[in-house]
Specification:
Layout lengths: L8 E3 L7 E8 L22 H6 L9 E10 L6 H15 L6 E5 L5 H11 L6 E4 L12 H12 L10 E4 L2 E4 L4 E2 L8 E2 L7 E4 L2 E4 L24 E5 L7 H8 L4 E6 L7 H12 L3 E6 L10 H6 L2 E2 L5 H12 L5 H10 L1
Parallel strand pairs: 2-3, 2-4, 4-5, 5-6, 12-13, 13-14, 14-15
Antiparallel strand pairs: 1-3, 6-7, 7-10, 8-9, 10-11
Bound molecules: asparagine.
Asparagine binds next to loops.
InterPro entries: AsnASE_II, Asp/glu_Ase-like_sf, Asparaginase/glutaminase-like, Asparaginase/glutaminase_AS1, Asparaginase/glutaminase_AS2, Asparaginase_C, L-asparaginase_C, L-asparaginase_N
Family: Belongs to the asparaginase 1 family.
EC number: 3.5.1.1
């Protein structure tokens, strides 16, 4: 279990500028290596939030920036406990008139999961921006400082209100609902190809071109204020020759829900479907998503008779986030389906 560190705070001089709080969680943006040409074999989550802020003094011209260290880990270590802590802290901060926007610095590997979680639990119209980097802070042409500068500018900008949680990366601004990591090492890894971006930076200015059509933030029904532990949801990856025993194993391990990374349009083998139906009969919720990477998993009449839920265009890792939150409200597949159609 990752220890949750005590928050530290750095505050710059009071001005008339918008107040932006940076919540740092680690990742490559806080990573360092002994070699400045090393962009793959470094340690993530090394530098503290004070160091990240001091590296980009330009941002104090656009916002009054202060920082808190939530955790300092590579993003594969981000767990439900940290998600709850982060979501609750952001809601507390945004309820204050002294905070105008939030930036979360985060490792890129699971960044889209945290961003989508926040998109579903933050109860505010104020901007929340999640940002990271693909090159550690020590690298030649590190992408972290410019990404962080843009993220702070976005969080400080009134035009960024009511957009839902945004991912600002490599000059692009994506909706947490749609953006996904698409490349193992490239700096332009975050893409929203099918649905498009919310906008992009050109020079100093964020230009918005579209809005997300799904419910988020101030429209959400999900309330984590009294939740201490999220339901357990596991992902099963479909493949040729797969078997129903994988579902049995997940149910035996206490899964409240299972997301299937199905093939194609959420397809499952007969053996897999038998396992899924057995899981449903044990009271475990099962959502059909896809391993394909883009497109909607269309809802079938048989989903309703089998008690299954279709994932809309959520990839498996985001479907897991929505299923966890759905299970805090209901076990009824029809009601869960309603959340999947709308969020
Ligand atoms: N680029 C990155 O941030 C990758 C890193 N392994 C992380 O997710 O923490």
């Amino acid at each position: 279990n990752t220890p949750v560190q005590v928050a530290s705070t750095v505050k710059s001089a009071e001005t008339d500028l918008p107040n932006v709080k940076i919540l740092a969680t680690g990742g490559t943006i806080a990573g360092s290596s002994a070699s400045n040409t090393d962009t793959t074999d470094y340690n993530a989550g090394q530098l503290g939030v004070e160091t990240l802020i001091k590296a980009v003094p330009e941002m104090t011209k656009v916002a009054d920036v202060s920082g808190e260290q939530v955790v300092n880990v590579g993003s594969p270590e981000i767990n439900n406990e940290i998600l709850l802590k982060l979501g609750k802290r952001i809601n507390t901060l945004l309820a204050s008139k002294d905070v105008d926007g939030i930036v979360v610095t985060h490792g890129t590997d699971t960044l889209e999961e945290t961003a989508y979680f926040l998109n579903l639990v933050v109860r505010s119209t104020k901007p929340v921006v999640v940002v990271g980097a693909m090159r550690p802070a020590t690298a030649i042409s590190a992408d972290g400082p410019m990404n962080l500068y843009n993220a702070v500018k976005l969080a400080a900008n009134p035009a960024a209100k009511k957009k839902g949680v945004m991912v600002s990366f490599n000059d692009r601004i994506g909706a947490a609902r749609y953006i996904t990591k698409t490349h193992t090492t490239a700096v332009d890894t975050f893409k929203s190809v099918e649905q498009g971006y919310l906008g992009a930076f050109a020079g100093e200015t964020p230009y918005f071109s579209s809005v997300s059509n799904k419910k988020h933030t101030s429209q959400t029904v999900f309330d984590i204020s009294k939740i201490e532990k999220l339901p357990q949801v596991d992902i099963l990856y479909s493949h040729q020759n797969d078997g129903g025993y994988l579902y049995d194993a997940a149910v035996d391990a206490g899964a409240d829900g299972i997301v299937v990374a199905g093939s194609g349009n959420g397809s499952m083998s007969k053996a897999s479907m038998e396992g899924a139906k057995a899981a449903v009969s044990e009271g475990t919720a099962v959502v059909r998503s896809t391993r394909v990477g883009s497109g909607v998993v269309t809802h079938k009449a048989s989903d309703d008779t089998d008690g299954l839920v279709s994932a809309d265009s959520l990839n498996p890792q985001k479907a897991r986030i929505l299923l966890m939150l759905s299970l805090t409200k209901t076990k009824d597949p029809k009601k869960i389906q309603h959340y999947f159609n709308n969020y």
